[in-house]
Amino acid sequence: MKAYSKTYLKLHSLTRLFPARTELHLIRKLWHMTTGTLIVCAYMAGLEILLVQCLGAFLALALTMEVMRLRNPSLNERCIRWFSPIIRSNEVNKISAMPYFAASCLVAIAV
Questions:
Q1: pLDDT value of residue 1
Q2: Distance CA 99, CA 71 (A)
Q3: How many Å apart are CA 37 and CA 15, to the nearest integer?
Q4: Residue 65 vs residues 11, 45, 47, 104: alpha-carbon distances, Å
Q5: Is residue 69 classed exposed, middle or buried when 0-12, 13-18 and 19+ CB atoms within 10 A define those classes?
Q6: What DSSP state is assigned to residue 20?
Q7: Rounded to whole angstroms, how far apart are CA atoms 67 and 71?
Q8: At a CB cut-off of 8 Å and minimum separation 6, what does 49 contact?
Q9: Low-confidence ranges of the chain (pLDDT < 50)
């Protein structure tokens, strides 16, 4: 039998508190709409180069944070508590959608 740490068990029990992928998650949708709208507004204002630089830096930060979070259960627990309004249950112990969202915005602006 595999021994689990207290932090892992606590995180595993928290997954039931977050919305599943099939549930309507309005706060998360509002978060995506707001950030997407801000990115479009910055693009329309002619800030393409600055936007690409900022999105690139954010993508690097998000990927670094995801790797650190998934390797360190106590940091993962703190991140889960911080982002609890917008996180889904399947993202507690897996990579979140944040790097994917940043990368897709970066590619769309760069192209």
A1: 42
A2: 17
A3: 29
A4: 17, 30, 26, 18
A5: buried
A6: P
A7: 6
A8: none
A9: 1
